[in-house]
Amino acid sequence: MNQRLEDLLTKAWGPSLPVIIVTAIVALLLPILVHTFLYRARTPTSLPSFLLVGPSGSGKTSLLTVFENGSPAPTHLSQTPSTVQVQLPPSTKADSQKYRSEHDPTAKQRPKFLIIDTPGHGKLRNHAFEQLRKPQPHLKGIIFVVDSASLSSDTPGRSAAGLTEAAQYLHDILLLLQKRYTGAKSSKGPPELPVLIAANKLDLFTALPAQLVKSALEAEITRIRTTRAKGLLDSAVKDETLEEEREWLGDGGEGKFEFGQMEEVNVPIKVVGGNVIGADGSDISGWWEWIGEQL
């Protein structure tokens, strides 16, 4: 028995062809396997993402094609969410790369991220709400596209239909983000989740500039908040047993609503103008810059 074991060991360590082949295969494959394991362990499995929302007709899906291809393409009414992988353009620098040396090879890499486009029709907005209700560890921000040319009204004292629709949708998005903060189980709260209000179609003569878009949405959300609060209070008076969740957007639902109030729940809001389609082409540099600040 000992002799047979000794013979096997002698053959295994001897200069035979099978031993040489096996040794060469192990020597070549082992470093590759170790590198692959370490790379997968340290490389994030998911890219950072941005949620793209907004009413129908705001130019949201056209913006998605510009992000993806650099130029707008014909679109149709979105029925289901879609996700595309996008790369930051060379003209925009990610915030995480601002302090890296020019000689650092990683500084020349253009970050990749995902954009999740959701339907804007009123009956399909549950897709966007579901994205916000479930945990999204890689979500870096929300881009809310609004048609700035549909926000002004020809009738004094009456809100434009486009303004009312956009403000109602934005109100519901912000209320979900506020509940995300107030319902957090830890005292620290969830991480910051910025919101970009992309005021689209600024190339049109009837479009409101970004600052007026901001004030118009704040005023309309104030009106919507007051109307909904009154409706809930009236329901509670009629039925004293009604247990309604009363969470008003902003500072307790009193006074004027301002976007700055959302910073208290880790939701900074920025309004930036631009246009997806125009006589001189797309102008979305301000939106690219905002995305770069979040990466």
From TrEMBL:
> Annotated region Disordered: where?
67-107
InterPro entries in alphabetical order: AAA+_ATPase, P-loop_NTPase, SRP_receptor_beta_su
Q: How does it sit in the membrane?
A: Single-pass membrane protein
Swiss-Prot/TrEMBL keywords: Endoplasmic reticulum, GTP-binding, Hydrolase, Membrane, Nucleotide-binding, Receptor, Transmembrane, Transmembrane helix
Indicate, by first and last residue, each region the UniProt record lists as having compositional bias (Basic and acidic residues). Answer: 95-107
Compartments it resides in: Endoplasmic reticulum membrane
- The answer to whether UniProt assigns keyword Membrane to this entry is yes
Residue spans of biased composition, Polar residues class: 76-94
Tell me where in this chain the AAA+ ATPase domain is found. Answer: 46-225
One GO molecular function term of this record is:
hydrolase activity
- Per the record, what is one GO cellular component? endoplasmic reticulum membrane
Q: Where are the transmembrane segments?
A: 20-39
| CDD domains membership | SR_beta
Q: Which protein family is it in?
A: Belongs to the SRP receptor beta subunit family.
State the name under which the record lists this protein: Signal recognition particle receptor subunit beta
